[in-house]
């Protein structure tokens, strides 16, 4: 059973930065494309960023130029570097496979952007 554990969220002021981490245990991590997703209060979960096995990345338009997804296959970990954060980035952030979500969702990590 694959377990996804997200961390790194917190409260940050607009314009600030955070780095999220997600570790996948018990998975063929290096053979899967991975993605970050987020769910804002009262909204549906949405895809944010994806990274392919070979390292190719893509992003939802609203975060392009501000967020960077990366992965460390040796650590079974995917990261999301978030810069120039905006209040509309406030959400619980999750990782999973991409584009299809194959694993049970983890608990997520909460990002709050507020002054």
Q: How much strand content do the residues show?
A: over 45%
Please count the beta strands (DSSP E, at least 2 residues each): 10
- SSE pattern, N- to C-terminal: EEEEEEEEEE
How many DSSP H or I helices? 0
Q: Separation of termini?
A: 40 Å
Arithmetic mean pLDDT: 95
Report the major sheet.
Answer: 6 strands, mixed
**How would you sum up the global shape?**
globular
Structural class of the secondary elements?
mainly beta
Helix % is under 10%
Radius of gyration: 13 Å
Strand order of the largest sheet: 2-10-9-4-5-6
Q: Regions with pLDDT < 50 over 5+ consecutive residues?
A: none
Give an overview of the whole structure.
Helix content is 0%, strand content 48%. The protein has no helices and ten strands. The strands form two sheets. A six-stranded mixed β-sheet has the order 2-10-9-4-5-6, with no helix packed on it. A hairpin with a 6-residue loop joins strand 4 (34-39) and strand 5 (46-51). It is globular and about 40 Å long. 32% of the residues are buried.
């Amino acid at each position: 059973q694959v377990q996804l554990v997200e961390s790194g969220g917190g409260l940050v002021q607009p314009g600030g930065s955070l780095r999220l981490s997600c570790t996948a245990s018990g998975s063929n991590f290096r053979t899967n494309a991975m993605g970050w997703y987020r769910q804002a209060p009262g909204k549906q979960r949405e895809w944010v960023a994806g990274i392919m096995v070979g390292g190719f990345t893509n992003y939802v338009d609203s975060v392009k130029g501000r967020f960077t997804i990366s992965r460390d296959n040796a650590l079974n970990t995917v990261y999301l570097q978030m810069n120039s954060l905006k209040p509309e980035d406030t959400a619980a952030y999750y990782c999973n496979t991409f584009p299809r979500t194959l694993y049970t969702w983890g608990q997520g990590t909460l990002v709050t952007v507020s002054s």
